[in-house]
Amino acid sequence: MAANPNVKGSEAPRPIYVRRVKKVAAGHHGGAWKVAYADFVTAMMAFFLVMWLVTAVSKEQRAAIFDYFKNPSMEPGKSVKPAPGQMGPGGASTSPINLHGGLDAPRSSAKQTDRIGATVMTSPAPPIDLKSEAQKAAEEKAMRIEQERRQLDALMQDLKEAINKSQALQPFKDQLLLDVTPEGLRIQIVDAQNRPMFDLGSSRLKPYTVAILKEVAQYLKTVPKRISITGHTDTTPYGGAGGYTNWDLSTDRANAARRALEAAGYDTQQIARVTGLSSSVLFDKDNPRSAVNRRISIVVMTQKAEEAAQRIDIPAVADAPTADEPAGDDETG
Fold first, then answer.
1. pLDDT digits (tens, 9 = 90+) for 251-299
2. pLDDT tens digits for range 169-198
3. Which residue, 294, 200, 312, is CA-closest to 254?
4. Shortest CA distance to 62 belongs to which of 97, 112, 89?
5. CATH classification of 134-315 is 3.30.1330.60, yes or no?
6. Quick one: which of 333, 270, 273, 329 has its CA closest to 307?
7. Segment 120-125 mean pLDDT
8. Among 28, 161, 45, which residue's Cα sits nearest to residue 153?
């Protein structure tokens, strides 16, 4: 039983103390370290990206990237010290970077310093050409062949139009055959059954054959190409005496066509070759004695065919290797 505090001699009660601890949170230290860490990670990513680019691209591609980042702005600069660019101070190249090999945008070749010390470009240099000499030669050859082809096609169309419009050539339209071969534009004047080009067994031209050759000569003069003239016969043996054969007859007829072209104003120097092939190259092989096998073939030669024609009579000793050169396989055109 507890003591009564009012009774004398009893003990005084002990005071009860309640201790309340007040917890105070520590101050916030901030998140600046996160920003710094993010910047560090970004910088490391950019560094490794640059290192990868340095090892992954070629020397020319690195040069293109370097030139672009010197001044990537597409607008004229307004700074006190303008940066150099293709368009002058403060300007950059308007061409995109070509990462397929070499530099796409021209680089400066002539530079000078302006009054504030900035280096500016005075004239652009041509782009770097990384093609080999063999590639350039092959491209030039292909372009020349294509240009010759278009030129010969245009000449063939002009001749066809001239034949269609000419009243004098209308009766002989079926005797003029035009096509483009690997050697050039071929114009064939063939015999018809009742309308031969020459007198029988002779190299004398018919008057209408002269008219045809005169018309053809006007168009041949417009093309700066040399021609070849070839005479052909059928397989019917020539009945003349003295060893005169179809070989002689085809050659004489080719020369008669040459004289007719020259009389029409065609330059003799433009004639590269005049030959007679007798009946060795038939137009109608199924009917060797057909009238169409008796013909004159005029070819406007391509450059390759002309070069091959000029090499025919070169002595073999001219191509023989010297003592300092190894012998190799002989190539003929």
1. 999 999 999 999 999 999 999 999 999 989 998 889 988 888 889 999 9
2. 777 788 888 888 888 889 898 887 678 888
3. 294
4. 97
5. yes
6. 333
7. 54
8. 161
Domain ranges within the chain, ordered by starting residue: 34-124, 134-315
Three-state secondary structure of the chain: CCCCCCCCCCCCCCCCCCCCCCCCCCCCCCCHHHHHHHHHHHHHHHHHHHHHHHHHCCHHHHHHHHHHHHCCCCCCCCCCCCCCCCCCCCCCCCCCCCCCCCCCCCCEEEEEECCCCCEEEEEECCCCCCCCHHHHHHHHHHHHHHHHHHHHHHHHHHHHHHHHHCCCCHHHHHHEEEEEECCEEEEEEECECCECCECCCCCCECHHHHHHHHHHHHHHCCCCCCEEEEEECCCCCCCCCCCCCHHHHHHHHHHHHHHHHHHCCCCHHHEEEEEECCCCCCCCCCCCCCHHHCEEEEEEECHHHHHHHHHCCCCHHHHCCCCCCCCCCCCCC
Structure tokens at 48: 């490794």
Backbone angles phi, psi at 154, to 5 degrees: -65, -40
Amino acid letter for position 325: E
Q: Could you count the other beta carbons within 10 Å of the beta carbon of residue 258?
A: 20
What would the pLDDT profile of 68-92 be if each residue is shown by its tens digit? Answer: 777 665 555 555 454 455 544 444 4
State residue 262's pLDDT score.
Answer: 93
Q: For residue 179, what are the β-bridge partners?
A: 186
Q: Give the whole-angstrom CA distance, residue 93 versus residue 85.
A: 7
Reported confidence tier of residue 125, pLDDT bands at 50, 70, 90: low
The residues near 291 (Cβ < 8 Å, ≥ 6 apart) are 190, 191, 192, 193, 196, 234
pLDDT above 70 for 154:
yes
- Edge to edge, the sheet with strand 184-190 lists 176-181, 184-190, 295-301, 227-232, 271-276
> Taking the model in full, what pTM does it have?
0.52
